[in-house]
Each structure stands twice: as structure tokens, then as C-alpha cells.
Design a protein that fits this description.
alpha+beta; eight-stranded antiparallel beta sheet; 5 helices
Amino acid sequence: MQNVSLSDLPINPFTSFQRDWFLVTAGDFATGRWNTMTVSWGFLGILWNKPCVHVVIRPQRYTREFLDACDTFTVSAFDARYHEALSVLGSHSGRDGDKVAAAGLTPMATPGVAAPTFQEARLTFACRKRFRQPMDPASFLDPETLSTWYPDRDYHIEYIGEILAAYTP
């Protein structure tokens, strides 16, 4: 893996989240206790004078347990040819089996953090968790957002991670 300067990132944050998707991975690769999931909502930017990534995870997702238990995580981007694999990882739970094997991806250690990335990733952010907060329905100003995205009241949990490093293959 090659360290890449954050000022030289080969990424468009708008298309990378919504169209291409990312994998959020948390846990400890060395012990084999980790999980990953596909995300299509998030932000990249500066917060608290630090480069950060912001992702939202529903409370019932298995990866959330690992995000809550660990201080670090990874966010990985892939080329379009891996869209089907990311679809598998976003629609199956790691509680029910080895979805990474089913998706055909190859996990590998990430320098500086416990969570893995994947050999097939074109870009990986190694992150330290800086903020976690469940969304409060009282804070939504637009009722349409609640009715459209939260009919089951399973409000996302927000996670903000400081980007410690970025890597390319």
C-alpha cells in the first residue's frame, strides 16, 4: 500500500458516496473479529481542523457493534467493476456467514489501524473515531425526511472519523 497525500486524493466525494459507494470496516483484523458494510451516505471534509469522514449507520447493522467497540475503522473506495461485490456486502449480514468471501474480496491489514481494508480497494482511509451520536428525531426540521427515510424509526447513528492516512494499492 502506498500512502497518498490528502491534498492529492483521486476521488469525487459526491459520486463516490452516492454512485460508487464505500465500505466501512471496523474491528480487529489480527483476531478475525471485524465486519464490513456498504455505505452510500456520507461526507468528506474538515472538522475540528482535522480531515474527517462522516458516515451514518442504522442501529441494527452488525458493523455498528464493531464501530462502537473500536477506536479505529477504515473507509474504502472501489472501482465500478466491484459494484456487485459491494451490493452483496450491503445486503447481507456478517452475522449470518462469511459475506466477504461471498463477495469475492480479499481482506488485508491496514497500516496504523486495527480494521482491515481490501486488496481490491482503490483508496482506503484509515480513521480514528472522534464522534458518535444517534440522530434525534426532534432535531429534524423537515417532516418529509422522517416519513421518507425513517418510517420504522430506526434513526441512523452518526460517526465522524479523523482521517489518519489515505492509501492506494
